[in-house]
Design brief:
alpha/beta, 14 helices, about 30% helix, about 15% strand, binds NADP nicotinamide-adenine-dinucleotide phosphate
Length: about 475
């Protein structure tokens, strides 16, 4: 078996997974290049109060590393970050991570079938295989609001939380009410004097249960992993995922009707004040924007120290925010929970493949990859959770694990020495993308709202078929869709 050299880009959830899986295969010739000084990806970047994963904790774990110690059904970011740190240590990948190593360039040499990966500190690595596990939502989107720079208090993006900002007993404005904005709001109502939720579009809220695990339950989980599996693979939890992915792909079917009804009922029964209820009622279909799963948002948004402002922002002034109708909100702190540039992936690193083809050229219309994993002209370059992959209210760890299973089978073909390079054919890529776009336009994401799920042309950028279809597709590569070069 040929010994291959690997570079993994990013020490977040997917990069750690790739490292662990390589070690499992007995492969040690790899390095994980991490741009910052710590692992954890999104769970390192995001430190905002209220940060929680809205996938149940026991389901948001690697399948091979169940965690009996989760404190509750849904857990906060710091606990998740500690989980990844523990798994990285337990599975022996720490020595393979090079921190503070931001990748700037990846260049493929066709004659040697070798990638050269350059790092910002001037160093370079050679690899036969690159695994780009650089995440999706990591480039903060700063809104173009007039006067933002003039604000005298602290104004900052949610993923760049400013610990010096005044929160306790302060007047806090939160721009945005996506998954992030609503989590921040729920965490701050008990601390801030006044919260102004600057809401451009309301969101549908799916009610979910939340509860703590007792010490006795954790002890039982430690003794019997089957008890954890009963939660991770709980049939109701999986039925909800299947309902969700069936619903988004069959938007007039019974599953979507059920989702819409659950969200509508939640709004009707939870929000008492009719005026507030109407402010919080979206004018688009549930799940068009990413559904928010929350057990407490409606409780918190009805607290006396919260005001939901729905007029558009005219400008930020030194002491607060002026609305288009002239209303002024005096603020000490302004949190920009305004989302991310979701089309970046590994960029701004430059990636140059076969024949000088650049990733920017390849993604000129929209970022895409064959099954969210590989691209023509970029041999031996694999993405985990790359463009067009499944997104939604389920664990991206499961998605990355399924992709790795597929990638590993392609790598096996290189290890047996018969081929040096593999990439999807142009025909297979075009066929995948044609089918994907046609189906994507029919999903709920394309039903008439704006969201980060849409690409610049307004086409939903994600996997448009069922969850099971993705899992099935990942079982075994369609080898005829790949070009193997000797
Ligand atoms: P987001 O879903 O893109 O939401 C951004 C919010 O900012 C929206 O409410 C948007 O309003 C608003 N906004 C943007 N620019 C604005 C402007 N110029 N003026 C006023 N409002 C503006 O971003 P996010 O909340 O950070 O969430 C991004 C994704 O991260 C989520 O969808 C999810 O995938 C992930 N996430 C997951 C969890 C979890 O628990 N698993 C938690 C947090 C985040 P419009 O809707 O009108 O555009």
């Amino acid at each position: 078996m040929k010994d291959l050299r690997y570079v993994i880009i990013g020490a977040g959830m997917a990069g750690l997974l790739a490292g662990i899986k390589l070690l499992e295969r007995g492969e040690k010739n790899f390095v994980i290049l991490e741009k910052t000084g710590a692992l954890g990806g999104t769970w390192r970047d995001n430190r905002y109060p209220g940060l929680t994963c809205d996938v149940p904790a026991h389901a948001y774990t690697y399948s091979f590393a169940p965690n009996p110690d989760w404190s509750s059904y849904y857990v906060g970011g710091p606990e998740i970050r500690r989980y990844f740190e523990k798994v990285a240590a337990d599975y022996g990948v720490m020595p393979y991570i090079k921190f503070n190593s931001e990748v700037t360039n990846c260049v493929f040499d066709e004659t040697t079938a070798t990638w050269t990966i350059s790092v910002a500190d001037g160093s370079a690595h050679e690899a036969d295989i690159v695994v780009a596990a650089s995440g999706v939502l990591h480039h903060p989107k700063i809104p173009d609001i007039k006067g933002l720079d003039s604000f005298k208090g602290h104004a900052f993006h949610s993923a760049r939380w400013d610990d010096d900002a005044k929160i306790d007993d302060a007047r806090v404005g939160i721009v945005g009410c996506g998954s992030t904005g609503i989590q921040i709001l729920t965490a701050l109502t008990g601390r801030a004097k006044q919260i102004v939720a600057l809401q451009r579009s309301p969101q549908w809220i799916m009610p979910v249960p939340q509860f703590d695990y007792s010490d006795a339950e954790r002890e039982a989980f430690r003794k019997d992993v089957k008890l954890i599996d009963e939660i991770r693979y709980n049939k109701d939890y999986w039925a909800a995922i299947i309902r969700f992915t069936d619903g988004i792909t069959n938007i007039d079917g019974p599953e979507m009707a059920e989702i819409e009804e659950l969200c509508r009922q939640n709004l009707e029964t939870s929000v008492k004040d009719p005026e507030l209820r109407e402010k919080l009622r979206p004018n688009y279909r549930a799940a068009c924007k990413r559904l928010i799963y929350s057990w407490c948002y409606y409780d918190h948004v009805q607290k006396p120290n919260v005001y939901v402002e729905t007029g558009g922002i005219a400008q930020v002034e030194p002491d607060g925010v002026r609305m288009k109708d002239g209303t002024f909100h005096a603020l000490d702190t302004l949190v920009l929970a305004t989302g991310f540039h979701a089309d970046r992936f590994i960029r701004p690193a430059s990636v140059i493949g076969r024949g000088g083809k650049t990733l920017d050229d390849s993604w000129a219309v929209r970022p895409t990859a064959y099954y969210a994993m590989a691209m023509p002209d970029f041999p031996n370059f694999f993405l985990l959770n790359g463009p067009t992959g499944p997104v939604g209210n389920f664990s991206l760890i499961d998605i990355a694990e399924a992709q790795w299973k597929y990638v590993a089978q392609l790598i096996d073909r290189l290890k047996d020495g018969n081929a040096r390079a593999v990439e999807p054919t142009k025909e297979a890529m075009a066929d995948y993308e044609d089918r994907r776009i046609a189906a994507a336009k029919r999903t709920i994401f394309g039903s008439g709202c704006t969201s980060w799920y849409l690409d610049e042309t307004g086409v939903p950028a994600s996997w448009p078929w069922s969850y099971q279809a993705f899992v099935d597709a990942m079982e075994k590569p369609n080898y005829e869709d790949f070009r193997f070069a000797a």
